[in-house]
Amino acid sequence: MPYRILTDENVERATRNYLRKLGHDVERLDDVKTSRSPSTPANTVV
To answer: Is residue 3 a contact partner of residue 24, using CB atoms and an 8 Å limit?
Structure first.
């Protein structure tokens, strides 16, 4: 059963690659795009 895993800069590239090889969807937090518009304050729940 594959999982979607969000990582930060502390997770090594080799670990992320290994998880991808196992079939998981792995993304770094700085790679994730937000759907928040520029006019929406950061603390607003959309």
So the answer is: yes
Q: What is the greatest pairwise CA distance in the chain?
A: 39
Q: Is the pLDDT of residue 14 over 80?
A: yes
Asked if residues 16 and 28 have their Cβ atoms less than 8 Å apart, the reply is yes
Residue 34 has pLDDT above 70, yes or no: no
- Rounded to whole angstroms, what are the CA distances from 25 to 2, 6, 22, 38? 7, 8, 9, 27
Q: What value does the mean pLDDT take over residues 37-43?
A: 58
The tokens describing 17, both together, are: 């690659």
Q: Is 40 helix (H, G, I), strand (E, B) or coil?
A: coil
Give the CA angle between residues 40, 34, 26 to the nearest 5°.
Answer: 160
